[in-house]
Every structure is written in structure tokens, then in C-alpha cells.
Design brief:
This protein is of the alpha/beta class and about 400 residues long. About 40% of the residues lie in helices and about 15% in strands. Strands 2-8-7-6-5-3-4 form a seven-stranded mixed β-sheet, sandwiched between helices. Its cofactor is pyridoxal 5'-phosphate.
Length: about 400
């Protein structure tokens, strides 16, 4: 029996970018101690009060089928959160609760792309983006954001691609994974103008919106005329350390949310009610709690800046947000992938190659700031020393 080309072609015939990560996990299984700086997983677990509320909700009986678009309380809370942060009037009718941000990304492309349509996205990108687009039978088209532009996408390059391909959608992510760059107002206004000019949907992945170290997060939904052009993807995973709970959302125009609710009825059938109750409890803890969850990454960023300032072999892409550092290791003469494998084998430190996130980050590595401060500082110092030895 033959499987569909839709599923067998998800990776486009190439690597999924997880080779170093899988090698590190294999070494750990074999008994080797590895310092993992790979995936965006908090080194703290979900806070006990959130788990206690989840337990309470489950024991209270909220274990049956929940409303498909999401519970009224959670949708209201997400709508209020987005309205406060964007200034755009938002109600529960603009909100669909999804099983995490990844599910939301898939659904958003299902809503905006017909089979064979071109969907644009920015390179460097989170590793699942092109496969997500292929999964809805659309054609992924990467647009490079260049290191010399501090990885801020250029509107003229996006406009040329939109015109050439007659693209249906553009996917952006700010604060950005993997680079840590926060898109400027100028960048986002240029992107918005391209979307308006080419009648193109903008899918805005904003799962790191609480992790901003320099500047401010601006949702493109807040820009003139963009509320009807934009689907915002959000999640409890990064902001509230609830990665395993799988609770996210899409915020967009009412008619789009109605159709996306139909899609959810035929695919995920919603999110468990007790998880939604816990997510509502977590959101109700306010921005102070979100700041507390983000604080370790802000602290480690400062540690990293101090360590990197003492050497010349590794340079830091402006680390303005998110839980990652993008480091330029081209002075070693190695690709990011070769450097990452060599670092793993020699020093048992696992990082993600820049090439895992596209071609624009070649010669870079992504370091997740996701281990305790002292260990993180020691690991980063070793990365720098290793790079210096290679560069010499």
C-alpha cells in the first residue's frame, strides 16, 4: 500500500534538522552525560498552583468533551489579553483554542492556503514551518533575512517574492526563534504594507511575546488595516511553562474563526476542559507571573553577554527576545552543523546548528538558555573556548 505524497513529502526530501539533538539523546541513553542546550524547554516545571487547579478541575468532572472553540472563560481571557496588547477590539468570537501553537500554525495555513498555493515564511525559521506548509498541500517559499541586516526581514524582498509567486500567506515570528531578534516597528509596517498590497494573509507566531529583553513586542494585528489580514498564533507553552499541556490559540476575524472551528471539529475535537481551566487560572495570575517565568532567560542573557564580551571567536546576533542565543561561529571555518557535532563529541555539549533553521543562519549555532545559571555559564564559556581553539 502506498502512503500519500502529502505525508511522505513533509520534509521535502531533506533533513528535519534534528540530527544533533537525536545524537545527543542517543549518547544520554548510552550513559554519557550531555549538557543539552537544544530545545526550548524551561528548566522549571509547570508551577504547582497551575497543576493543582488542573487537578481540581479534573476531579470536579471537567473531563468530558469541552466546547470545540474553547471554553467561554478561556476565550474571553485570551480575547482580553490580545485586546489589551494590541488595542484592537477582540471578543471570544475572534478566538479558537487549539492543542498548542503547532496545531494553530497548521490550522492557520489550512485556513489561508488552497492546495498548490505558495506560502511564504522567513528564513531563519522554526524547524517545523516548511513541513507544516507542505502538510496542507501548499508550497513553502523561504525568504532570507540576512545577518548583515541583523536578521530583520526586508519588505522589498518579501514584496518581490509575493509578486513572483502570487503567495496566499506570509508566516512571521517575533520575538524570533531561532535568532532572538525582535522585529522593529519599521520592519512590521513594511511587512503589513506588503500584505495589504498583495491581499495576502499574515500568520503571526507570537508565542514568545512575554520574552522581550530589548525594545517592545508589536503584534502586526495592531497596525492599520491588519486586523482583517492577520491570524495571531499564541500559546501557554513559553509564557507559563506549560509546554506539555498543549494549549494554544488562534485570534483572527470572526468568519475565519468560524471556519477554523469547523476544522477543529473534524480534526482535534478541541482541548480537554481541565487543561483549559488550568490555562485560565494561569492567565489570571497576571503579567507578574509571566515576568517571573521569563526572568531566568533574561538573567542568562546578561551572563552570556558578559562571557561573549571576553573573546573574539564567537559573535552574538542581537539577543532581543526569546529563550535562545544565535551565535556566529564562522571564524572557525566550520559550518554550524560541523561545529555542533564536533562540540558534542569533544565536550558533550549539545546545541542546534543554524542550518537546522534554514540557509540564512549557516555558520551559526542556536543555544537555548534552558539550564541552571552556573551550568549555563560554564557551558557557554566552553563553547567560546572551543571556537577560539578552532579559529586559532
Amino acid at each position: 500500500m502506498q502512503l500519500s505524497s502529502r505525508i511522505t513529502g513533509l520534509l521535502g526530501g531533506g533533513s528535519d534538522g534534528w540530527g544533533v539533538f537525536l545524537r545527543a539523546r542517543q549518547m544520554i541513553e548510552q550513559g554519557t552525560q550531555v549538557t543539552e542546550l537544544t530545545i526550548g524547554e524551561h528548566d522549571i516545571r509547570t508551577a504547582a498552583p497551575i497543576l493543582q487547579d488542573m487537578h481540581r478541575a479534573a476531579l470536579a468532572g471537567h473531563t468530558g468533551y469541552a466546547a470545540i472553540p474553547g471554553t467561554t472563560g478561556l476565550r474571553d481571557a485570551v480575547a482580553a489579553r490580545l485586546q489589551e496588547r494590541t488595542g484592537v477590539p477582540t471578543t471570544r468570537d475572534n478566538v479558537l483554542i487549539t492543542p498548542g501553537g503547532q496545531s494553530a500554525l497548521f490550522a492557520a495555513h489550512m485556513a489561508t492556503c488552497n492546495p498548490g498555493d505558495t506560502a511564504l515564511y522567513i528564513d531563519p525559521y522554526y524547524a517545523t514551518y516548511p513541513g507544516t506548509i507542505r502538510g496542507v498541500s501548499a508550497l513553502p517559499h523561504a525568504i532570507a533575512a540576512r545577518a548583515e541586516d541583523a536578521f530583520q526581514p526586508r519588505a522589498d524582498v518579501i514584496a518581490a517574492a509575493a509578486k513572483q509567486t502570487n503567495a496566499a500567506s506570509l508566516l512571521v515570528n517575533s520575538p524570533n526563534n531561532p535568532t532572538g531578534v525582535v522585529y522593529s516597528r519599521k520592519t512590521l509596517e513594511g511587512i503589513a504594507q506588503v500584505c495589504r498590497d498583495h491581499d495576502m494573509w499574515l500568520i503571526s507566531d507570537e508565542v514568545y511575546d512575554t520574552q522581550v529583553w530589548e525594545g517592545a513586542h508589536l503584534s502586526p494585528r495592531a497596525l492599520d488595516g491588519m486586523a482583517e489580514h492577520t491570524l495571531v498564533v499564541g500559546s501557554m507553552s513559553k509564557s507559563h511553562a506549560m509546554t506539555g499541556s498543549r494549549c494554544g490559540w488562534i485570534v483572527g476575524p470572526v468568519d475565519a474563526i468560524e471556519h477554523l472551528t469547523n476544522l477543529a471539529t473534524h480534526t482535534t475535537y478541541g482541548v480537554p476542559g481541565y487543561i483549559q481551566d488550568a490555562a485560565l487560572f494561569a492567565l489570571n495570575q497576571g503579567t507578574g507571573f509571566e515576568t517571573e517565568i521569563a526572568a531566568p532567560f533574561q538573567r542568562r542573557r546578561l551572563l552570556a553577554q558578559d562571557i561573549l564580551a571576553r573573546q573574539n571567536a564567537v559573535s552574538l546576533v542581537p539577543a532581543q527576545g526569546a529563550m535562545y542565543l544565535m551565535l556566529d561561529v564562522r571564524s572557525t571555518g566550520m559550518s554550524g552543523e560541523d561545529f555542533a557535532y564536533a562540540l558534542l563529541e569533544k565536550h558533550h555539549i549539545a546545541v542546534m546548528p543554524g542550518e537546522s533553521f534554514g540557509t540564512a543562519a549557516a555558520g551559526h549555532i542556536r543555544v537555548a538558555m534552558t539550564i541552571e545559571d552556573t551550568r549555563f555559564a560554564q557551558a557557554l564559556a566552553t563553547v567560546c573556548d572551543f571556537a577560539e581553539s578552532l579559529a586559532a
